[in-house]
Structure formats: C-alpha cells, structure tokens
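Review form for a predicted model. The reviewer records the input and the model, then writes brief findings.
Reviewer: anonymous (R2)
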Amino acid sequence: MRRKRWLPMVGILLLFLTPGMSLSADLRFQSSTQYLWYTDPFKDKDQSDIVQYVKIGAPKIDEAGRFSAFGYGRVSQQFGSEDDRALGDDEDVIGRLYFLYVNYSLPERRGDIRLGRQYVAVGAGAGTIDGVRVDLRKLGPVSVSAWGGYDVRFAQTTDRTETGNYLAGVSVGASFFKGNNIEASYLRKYDESDLIREMLGVHADQTVLGKAKGYVDWRYDVLHEANSEFLAGIKIYPVIGRLTVTGEYFSSYPTFDADTIYTAFAVTRYWEALGRVDWIVGPQLTLYGSYTQADYDGPTADIGTVGVRARPEKVAGLGVNVAVDLRSGYPGDLTGIQFSADYQFGKALLAAGIAYDVFQRDSMTDDFSAKKYWAAGSYEFRRNMTAKVRVEDTVTRQYENEFQGRASIDVRF
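Model under review:
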C-alpha cells in the first residue's frame, strides 16, 4: 500500500517546534524560488517548471539544547508547451520531501537519536528512510550507529514508501591512535519483505605527520558474492598548502537489487589507475594535471587533463579557469577544451564559460564535435537575499540547440 508517511512527520515536527518557539527557539529558514525553462530533447518541445525549495531548522528547541529539528523539501509545477498541455505532469502540483526529522542529543555528547525522514550513508551503501537512527559515541575509541525504517524511493515525480519496503544497517567506527579512522558497515534492503540487497563496507584512512594520507574503501555484495567497489589511494603533501600529489586505484563491478531485470544483464569489471598533481604556485595561480589509465575488462583508454586556475592581481575580482582533456582508446578518441571566467564587483557576480569537444567513436567514422555555452550572474540585494540566473545552450550532432535556463530568488533568515 502506498502511503504519504511524511504527513505524520510534519505533525511531529510541529509538535516539537511549538513549545520551542515559546522559549524563543533559534528558528532558521531558507527559501529558493526558481523558474526553469528548457527544451525536452525527446519531444522537441519547450517546457518550464516553477519550483519552491524550503529548508527549516530549529537547532535549539528546549532550554537544555537537547532537541533540534530540521526539514527540507520542495513543491513544483511543470508546464508543457502552449500547443500541447499534455507535456506537463499529470498532477498540477508535485511535492517532494527530502528530509524532516527531530534529533535528541544525549548528555555529554555521547550520541544522538534521530526520528523521521533522513538520509543515511556509510561505506556499505546509502539511502533515505522514514525511521529512526541511533548514534553512540565515547565508547572508548569506538562509535556505533544503527538505523532502520521504511525505504523511501524517489521516482521522477514521486517520493513514496510502501509496506514491506525496508532499509536497515549498522556501522562501527574507531580511532585507535592519532590520524587513524576505521569503519565497518552492513546494510540490508527489502522489497515486499523479500531481501533484495545485502552489502558490507569497510573504510580506513591514516594520516602520517601531516605529510601524507592513505585511504581504502571496499564494498562487497553478499547476495551476488562479488566485490562491488574497491578504492585505494594516497595523497602526499611535499609542500603543505602548496603541492599535493595523488595516486589512486579504483575497480568496480556493477551489481543491482535482486528484484530488478538488470540482474539478467551481462556486466564487466572496470578498473582505473590515476595520478594527479595540484600545485598552488601562489595566491593568483594554481596548476593541475592528471593521467588515468582505464581498463574495460580488455579494451583500454588513456585519459589526460591539464589545467590552470588564475586570479590576476592586476584585475581584482577576476577568476579564469582553462582545462584541456585528451582521451585515446576505448570507446573512442576525444580532444576537448574548457574555458570559464567569473568577475566579482560589489554585490554582483558575473560568470561565463564554453566547452568544446571533438571526438571519434572509431577509426572508420568521421570526427564529430559538441559545444556548450553558458552564462550566469547573481546579485545580493541584502545579506539574506540573492537573485541568480543561469542560461546555457548545447550543440551536438543530434541536437542543433538544447537551450535551458534557471532564475531564482534565494532568501534566508
């Protein structure tokens, strides 16, 4: 049965906020009113959306500061073109609740208990639940987190939960000595009470003398008995605050929920090795470059990027970024360049950019190109009110123009 389980949570939030407001609670509010216009590339029709995002928070509801509450969601209405109203959504107004929860902090900062809709993320996986999360800290060097509830599944126009769809997990973390962090996690997901995903995750990182940091992330799919993801890397800081050298190895084997048709598809393992250097030459200049060797279970590709970020001292407020991308091998060759600039003057900010790519899918075909142009600006009317606008156009072999834009008014207090 489909239910709007977020409606009772709104009541819970108001129940906690009401006494808090009588105690002059610290109530915070953020709003973003947006108008979006774009061309649907599949229907070749103009469409537009009016969207209202709202974020509320009460960091201190009671005098002791134990209770707090936070919420974030949106409502929107989509319009089709003038000659085809059917392009709009079926419902006039669509609502989506991203999170809405009440948090209770245990005495002496020993943990938190969180009730409501919330996003959870650990090494084993992530998701949104309508449920409860308990975090316990100061258990010696160990911390424990456990959560469970209805699995919230976001579709194109809905966010819903159903009886029998659950998400639960637990993570145990520890720090045994300076610069050390270890976490092991476990996650289970159900659909109509059937187990469809079971994952294990491990994370570890170690910082040495502030000059280097090593890290490992591993994710294992128990149902498919497969290593889903593995990442091992190291960052070295020969000159702290100026030079960073990064080396990483990453491998991935796609796995899916057991009840989806995608489990019947053949997949291949992917791995890549990356090296990257970031050099802050000075306050006005940063150079960076990277090289990646990618392997698609046989076919390979070599990928390189070099770039520069600059803020000329002679032109206050101006920032420039230029990057060149090169790719050779599977699934084709590519040469691309990106250029962007921004200029801050007073309470206004202007920015613009262009991306141009030339690619060849295989040696028997001609070259093709793709271009993207964009421009943006913002103006701060008050410290708590900002207007923003952004427009962009994409030109490819398939679409001569794919124009879209966004205008918004952001308010906070």
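Findings: The longest strand covers residues 125-139.
Further findings: The CA atoms of residues 256 and 262 lie 7 Å apart.
Recommendation: see findings above.
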